[in-house]
Amino acid sequence: MEASIFVEGNKINRIVDQYDLRTLDERNEQVIDGKGCLLIPGMIDVHIHGAKNFNMMDGTTESIQAVSRACAETGCTHFLVTSVSATLEELLQMIKQTKQVIGKEEGAKIAGIHLEGPYLNIEKKGMQNAKYLRHPDLNEMAKIFEEADGLIKMMTIAPELPGGIDLINYLKENGVIVAIAHSNASYEEAQKAFESGASHITHCFNAMPVIHHRSPGLVTAALENDDVSVQAIVDGIHLHPGIVRLLFKVKGADKMVLTTDALQAMGVGDGNYLFGGHQVTVKNGVARLKDGTLASSTVTMNKSLENSVAFGIPLANGIQMASTTPAKLLNLASVGEIREGYTADLVLLDKEFNVLRTWISGEIYSKNKNN
């Protein structure tokens, strides 16, 4: 639909179907003509490791700010700082640096931290470094929570590991979204995890057992459970378009979240990178370890949205999966939709889904301002 959006301060004040822009000119208010382009709510990335040659596990505020800026440039207004499996000391350092940046972000805002590991199954490690994988340790988690001061919003675990169910209980008590991946959980083990409070699947279908008609596994349990939401890396590599459509058909846009899982090659291009203690080669935009294992992605959120639509997802549903659903998943108030009274987190896209402008809390993001 064609509409005019009125922003006052950091809020969407009013939405009308039509408006005479000359009236605004007479009142000396700033007018931006979208010229028929697409205005959507700011997108939210719940799983991103790096961008622009910066890896957020390198222990610096500079790397987190670089990702914040890269997210804003690609239509993302909130993101979760995401770890890989590492030592306790490295995880604590990442948390400390995140705390330094929150409230001072130069681009997209930090909505919290996503711990991907270290309590993952070595049998489905994917690109996770085996030397850092370990069984759940509640004493270690207590130290992490003490440092994080409420910033841990999501944690990806393998629930079948010894102590996995106790960890789920601990995380739920602390208000954390319990996600599953890098897991070899059987159908029965997955159902037990969901009954205990796990409710999300990280990069669904990747780093977990394939569906077999006599051994349905984790994915079947997740698809069968209406309360479980799923992440999808829609880069044309991690998931076949038919699987993207299947996920959408089964889960719907209110339980399916677009994410990038991007490493520091996002926004840079092909080359060699050090990520998670591994040498990673990016060729034709695809990141792999030496043995051919996929190692995160280089896709952006605006490209994920474009791909989703190209794969057959209706545009309105794709926007919901990129903005509204992750906002609700993270329990973010007044974001993820274009509604009166909501925060003016907005993105203007052209017909090729290129980002023309990003508004964060009512202010236009400018690369020149922050560089």
Automatic annotation (TrEMBL):
CDD domains hit by this protein: NagA (cd00854)
Domain of life of the source: Bacteria
GO MF term set: metal ion binding; N-acetylglucosamine-6-phosphate deacetylase activity
Note on how the cofactor is bound: Binds 1 divalent metal cation per subunit.
Active site positions: D261
GO biological process: N-acetylglucosamine catabolic process
Cofactor(s) this protein cannot do without: a divalent metal cation
Reaction catalysis annotation: N-acetyl-D-glucosamine 6-phosphate + H2O = D-glucosamine 6-phosphate + acetate
Domain Amidohydrolase-related: from-to ranges: 39-364
InterPro entries in alphabetical order: Amidohydro-rel (IPR006680), GlcNAc_6-P_deAcase (IPR003764), Metal-dep_hydrolase_composite (IPR011059), Metal_Hydrolase (IPR032466)
Binding residues for Zn(2+): E116, H182, H203
Pathway field: Amino-sugar metabolism; N-acetylneuraminate degradation; D-fructose 6-phosphate from N-acetylneuraminate: step 4/5
EC numbers: 3.5.1.25
Key words of the record: Carbohydrate metabolism, Hydrolase, Metal-binding
One Pfam family hit: Amidohydro_1
SUPFAM superfamilies in alphabetical order: Composite domain of metallo-dependent hydrolases, Metallo-dependent hydrolases
Record family assignment: Belongs to the metallo-dependent hydrolases superfamily. NagA family.
Name recorded for this polypeptide: N-acetylglucosamine-6-phosphate deacetylase
